[in-house]
């Protein structure tokens, strides 16, 4: 029942869109979750961050780590609730890196958070970055898991909403095969 009411939250704020979408992962899908339709509401965002924070509160993380852009908001919200630091990684060339003086001290307990998980690529990059910097990963939290729980990161995982939304490699996309226009970040164009 709780999962259904969590999905209703996404529907009520217009975050679940239907069409033909190019995802950040490069994959295509007929369903898109527009996180910023959700994140535009600070009190609702606080509620979702509180859900992640409460799930991992007992792990007592020293620092919450997210990835730019949506992950910054989630990291900050969870960090505020857990009264701990919040930092984020940014893309430099094609890799996630810490900039702006952010660092993880050797042995610091880290909670990794993200907005939406599709293939898990950004989370895997964050795991590698945190481990490379000497952090100890306590868990991974997300607002929305589009994989329906199919990805195992090797650490405790929690998502506010789990949806099983298929995505396709472009060459295997049924909508591309049907010649349906693709939408990418608010722009429409031909495949």
Description:
The chain has a single domain, classed as Rossmann fold (3-Layer(aba) Sandwich), CATH 3.40.50. Strand 4 and strand 5 form a beta hairpin. It is built from 6 helices and 10 strands. About 35% of the residues are buried. The longest helix has 15 residues. Helices cover about 30% and strands about 30% of the residues. It is globular, with a radius of gyration of 17 Å. It has about 190 residues and is of the alpha/beta class. The termini are far apart. Helix 3 packs across helix 4. A 6-stranded mixed sheet has the order 5-4-3-6-7-8, with helices on both faces.
What is the architecture at the second tier of CATH?
3-Layer(aba) Sandwich
Strand count, sense and barrel status of the largest sheet are: 6 strands, mixed
Structural domains: how many: 1
Give the N-terminus to C-terminus distance in angstroms.
39 Å
Which residues form runs of ≥5 with pLDDT under 50? 186-191
Output the strand order for the largest sheet.
5-4-3-6-7-8
Instruction: Kindly report the CATH topology.
Output: Rossmann fold
The total beta strand count reads: 10
List SSEs in N-to-C order.
HEEHHEHEEEHEEHEE
Give the % helix.
25-40%
- Overall SS class: alpha/beta
State the shape: globular
> What's the total helix number?
6
Top-tier CATH class: Alpha Beta
Mean pLDDT figure = 91
Query: What is the gyration radius calculated from CA atoms?
Result: 17 Å
């Amino acid at each position: 029942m709780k999962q259904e009411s969590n999905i209703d939250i996404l529907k009520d704020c217009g975050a679940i869109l239907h069409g033909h979408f190019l995802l950040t992962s490069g994959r295509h899908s007929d369903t898109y979750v527009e996180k910023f339709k959700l994140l535009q509401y600070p009190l609702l965002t606080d509620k979702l961050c509180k859900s992640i924070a409460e799930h991992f509160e007992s792990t007592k993380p020293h620092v919450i780590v997210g990835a730019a852009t949506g992950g910054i908001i989630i990291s900050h919200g969870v960090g505020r609730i857990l009264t701990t630091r919040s930092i984020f990684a940014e893309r430099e060339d094609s890799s996630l890196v810490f900039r702006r003086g952010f660092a993880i001290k050797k042995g610091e307990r880290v909670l990794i958070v993200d907005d939406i998980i599709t293939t898990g690529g950004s989370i895997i990059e964050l795991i590698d970055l945190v481990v490379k910097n000497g952090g100890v990963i306590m868990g991974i939290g997300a607002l929305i898991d589009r994989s329906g729980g199919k990805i195992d990161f090797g650490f405790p995982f929690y998502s506010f909403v789990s949806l099983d939304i298929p995505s396709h490699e472009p060459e295997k996309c049924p909508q591309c095969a049907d010649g349906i226009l693709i939408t990418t970040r608010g722009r429409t164009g031909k495949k």
